[in-house]
Amino acid sequence: MNMVRFIFTLIINCLLSYFVYQTKFYTFLFEEYIWIGIILLGILIFISNLIEDTTLYQQQWQPISYLITAMNVSFIFFIVVLKLTIIINFNKPSLLKVFYDGDFNGTAIDFKVDKTYILDNAAIGISNYFYGTYHIQGHKITMDKDTIDNLDNLKHLELREIENDNGIKKWYLMQVDNNGIINEESDNSFRVIINNRNKQ
After folding, report:
1. Contact residues for 196 (Cβ-Cβ < 8 A; gap 6+)
2. Following CA atoms 95, 30, 39, 21 in sequence, which dihedral angle do they give, to the nearest 10 degrees?
């Protein structure tokens, strides 16, 4: 077994695994091109190792000759399972989803049916994801954290139906204090874009 090839393959696969893991916490513009590069790099490394190991096996006739290829296959399986797990978590059923548009930035909170949430804090093509739990009672939502990234006063939120100038009523999630009074220090009123509360 070529130790240099083993170490190189191990390092590359660990880096690829780490990159995939980090997609749970952030995404960015043109990320798909990096994914294409990762897939091509993975295929090239796998094919190269398979050819090298096959040549080594034909010389030694020992199954251990395929150790690096086996390691490669194990990492591919791990990376695929890891990415699928992240995708499944993102796609869990939503109870409520809200969005705040801040022109160059924006914040979305996806409240899942299982009482977890994913907060997407985005700015100029980059999204940072944060995870936690919440409790909902009626129109009131209590978050597990009061500060997430650069956002404050998130502990207490309340759904309110607000009528605009055209007489159309829409639901918003407001930042309030523990007495239900709108927090004047926060100008974030999250517009409700998904509301499945009545389906529960």
Report:
1. 93, 94, 95, 96, 113
2. -50
Calculate the alpha carbon distances from 26 to 98, 120, 123, 143 in Å: 19, 9, 11, 21
Q: Give the pair of three-digit tokens for residue 101.
A: 């548009």
Distance CA 7, CA 67 (A): 12
Q: 150 is written with which tokens? A: 């650069």
Q: Looking at the chain, how many residues does it have?
A: 200
Q: Residues 81-96: pLDDT tens digits?
A: 999 999 999 999 999 9
C-alpha–C-alpha distance, residues 46 and 68, integer Å: 9
Give me the pLDDT at residue 183, please.
75
pTM of the model: 0.82
Q: How far apart are the first and last CA of the chain?
A: 58
Measured between alpha carbons, how far is 151 from 48 in angstroms, rounded to an integer? 48
